[in-house]
Amino acid sequence: MELTVAQKLDALLKLQAIDSQLNDIRKMRGDLPEEVRDLEDEIAGFETRIGKFNSEVSSLQDEVDRHKGIKKDADKLIARYKEQQMNVRNNREFDAITKEIELQSLEMELSDKKIAESQFRMQGKQEEINTTQESLNLRKEDLKMKKQELDQLVAESEADERTLSLERDEQAKNVEARLLLSYDKIRNNAINGLAVVTVRRGACGGCFNVVPPQRQADIKDKKKIIVCEHCGRILADVDAIVEPVAVGRGR
User: Can you tell me the distance from the alpha carbon of 236 to that of 220, in angstroms, rounded to the nearest whole number?
Assistant: First the structure.
């Protein structure tokens, strides 16, 4: 059965009332959910950085081990060349072997230099790891406390939120798909989460801009869906203003 505009607006108002209650519950948690997410992102960043530093340290250690191997091989060659020098037959062979010994000695000196450079860089990386690890440990402590605080707040309102969420799902079924899509879009773009409002004291209940009398009359008629010209919120009704009754004194 096709719903009237009045029924559609009534369904939207009920849905908005439920969403507003859900928003109030979530507001009680303040910035904690966002703070928890930020801390989790920061922790992930620190862990990635430490992983990168450890990988660099591992590569530098491989470089140190490689040059130590080069030194070991050069040392063996020098020992072998020195033995050969004892059995040379002429000065030319002696000079050739002496040159090889000098070359291997230079190779060892170069390896010593490379080892020292890599170890110095490793020390720097290890210091960066230690500093980052300290920051990581502090952030983990902060996250633990924030999560405990958030879990407590969630536990206190979990039952109400679950009940309201179920009510919300049921009420959403009473709103036609196209209208629900527009409602959700407006609500997601609204700072206060209000997509459907009433006109109060001649002004939009969302942005508080004045709504002309003729437009108010159209809204009261509920013949069509009318939105605020300023903020785009759906104007579902016009609240009646009850004037206080003046009580006169008798003589």
Answer: 8
> Which residues are registered as beta bridge partners of 175?
none
| DSSP 8-state code for residue 190 | -
Query: How many other C-beta atoms lie within 10 A of the C-beta of residue 141?
Result: 11
How would you classify the pairing of strands 203-204 and 196-200? antiparallel
| Per-residue pLDDT reduced to its tens digit, 165-207 | 999 999 999 999 999 999 999 999 998 899 999 999 999 999 9
Compute the CA torsion angle 51, 54, 55, 59 (nearest 10 deg): 170
Crossing angle for the helix pair 91-172 and 32-85, to the nearest 10 degrees:
170
In 3D, which of 20, 24, 30 has the Cα closest to residue 195? 20
Tokens 């409602």 correspond to: 183
Residue type, 74: A
Give the model confidence (pLDDT) of 137-148 as tens digits.
999 999 999 999
To the question of pTM greater than 0.70 for the whole model, the response is no
